[in-house]
Amino acid sequence: MIAGMLRTASRVPRLLPRVLVVLLPLLAGTGRAAAEPPAASFDALATTVRKAVESDKPEDALRAYARIGPLADPRAVDLVLDTAPKVVARRDALVKEQTDAATTLENALAKIEKANATTPITPRDIAEYNKRTRKLEADRDAATVKLRDLGLDIAQWKAVLAAASSAVGLVIETLPRPKAEEGLAKLTAAWFGPKGLPESKIRWLDAVSAVKTLPVGPQLRAISMDEVEDVRVRVVALSVRVARVDADVVADTVALLASKDWPLAAEAIEGLRRLHCKEAIEPLIAFLGREDIGRLRSDAHRALRSLTGQKHGPFQQPWKDWWEVAKPTFVLPEKPADAADLARPEKGLTFYGVTTFSDKILFVLDVSGSMLDPARGDPNAPAKEGERKIDAARRELKGALGMLDPSKKFNIIFFANKVIRYQVGMVVADKSAVELATRFAMDIEPVGGTNIHDALEAAFRIAGTAADGKNYASAVDTIYFMTDGTPTVGKLKKPEEILAAVREWNRTAHITIHGIGVGAECDAVFLKALADENGGVFVKR
């Protein structure tokens, strides 16, 4: 199971240049790389780059690619195209090692569980049991450390790929027009050819996002509007167009509101919010008139509030009534409204005070040992006398499940040291399923540590977006993530590394993640970042 999740998650090619910004500070010395001058000659720099990608130090490759960017030499395009496949091969080899290490860990955990099921009686049996258990635990710990290290190594080499994309885009931007056109043609043939994989196509998009001197707008438009193209690629293409404010981007973004692929529709809504133009208001109001939009209703509502500063709820009629009167004299606010305030809808399913209109909801809940501690509560939702945190969580969950109906689907993940799924996939929220889920939740007893990374990885696995990238109609569009602590076990335990992983998984999935911190010991900074970066709301209880 762990190996399967690792194998599939690692194939998802969703790493924006902004991920590089997050990862660079984690790598020794990279903060100085940006300030280093270009090499004295292209030949010297080419040698440096080739040696760096062959080395075991991704920070060297990051520095080398950072020095390519300002080098206005057409040969730099060939250099990137020649060396990037070697970086891909190195990353893929690490992914295979990660899969093998996950299998080793899975086997060690199974053996420990089997050993714990026995009861030694005689002194000799006890001695043998203790010796065997220590060996198994050592194997487990070694596999866990190796998984953690491999996960970071993979993230670093992915950052190198992102650096290569940024560098080649900057090179093309600085070349004279004929050479720039030639370089772009080479890049397109290599990364966006007929046999190009989504991963390489997204690298191409990341590269050309920096190219302003060449007319790449028509190419970007064709990609974003191509219904045959991979949905992930279309989402990134639209995002790049919005950032560039290309010609026709407003009209095309409005048209993509009708997309049947909800990640693309979600990107269109976010694009209209980012474009912050009056022309976006009427189409978004019309969008609210649809009955089949689920969580996208929350997104459109938030975008309208951002564009107008108004609060007319998540349904169409109040907005239509207001717009008929306000339209002739309406002046767009200078800047979008506050994001935290925008995320408070008026109706829908509510969990820990956070409301959603989603039809596909996944609850990810902490059941580590500290959830047995007394609940603190707050003035708006005081804890009952003698209530533990797990009791409050069960009460909140029961109330939220009671708001579901058969038109919606749901699932629950509980996590401590291990991850426990209520069901393998999403289930229809009929009365029977809700009752079974409620009883299941009542039987889960808190114990062990806090495995935040693996719980989120399992959530994206259920969603279908951390698998092979082919499930574009994600099974999940909203995640409620609740914890009372900080990461203590799992493949990744540093909050910034977990955020980077989620950022990659959710790049084109557009799953909203609400962060709920319970008690004084929760990592509020991490949970707020998790919510802010994924369109959600953070609350602390």
Structure report:
With 541 residues, the chain is α/β, with parallel strands linked by helices. It folds into 3 domains: 2-182, no CATH class; 215-342, no CATH class; 349-540, von Willebrand factor, type A domain (Rossmann fold, 3-Layer(aba) Sandwich), CATH 3.40.50. The chain has 22 helices and 9 strands. The protein has helices at 2-9, 17-23, 30-33, 42-54, 58-68, 75-116, 123-174, 177-191, 198-208, 217-225, 231-244, 249-255, 262-275, 281-287, 296-308, 316-326, 339-342, 389-401, 431-443, 452-463, 495-505, 524-533; strands spanning 349-351, 354-356, 360-366, 409-415, 419-421, 427-428, 478-483, 512-517, 538-540. Strands 3, 4, 5, 6, 7, 8 and 9 form a 7-stranded mixed sheet that branches. A two-stranded antiparallel ribbon has the order 1-2. Helix 11 packs parallel to helix 13 (262-275). The two termini are 33 Å apart. Residues 1-40 and 466-471 have low confidence and may be disordered.
Indicate the topology.
Layout: H1 2-9, H2 17-23, H3 30-33, H4 42-54, H5 58-68, H6 75-116, H7 123-174, H8 177-191, H9 198-208, H10 217-225, H11 231-244, H12 249-255, H13 262-275, H14 281-287, H15 296-308, H16 316-326, H17 339-342, E1 349-351, E2 354-356, E3 360-366, H18 389-401, E4 409-415, E5 419-421, E6 427-428, H19 431-443, H20 452-463, E7 478-483, H21 495-505, E8 512-517, H22 524-533, E9 538-540
Parallel strand pairs: 3-4, 3-7, 7-8, 8-9
Antiparallel strand pairs: 1-2, 4-5, 4-6
Helix pairs in contact: 1-6, 2-7, 4-5, 4-6, 5-7, 6-7, 7-8, 7-9, 8-9, 9-11, 10-11, 11-13, 12-13, 13-15, 14-15, 14-16, 18-19, 20-21, 21-22
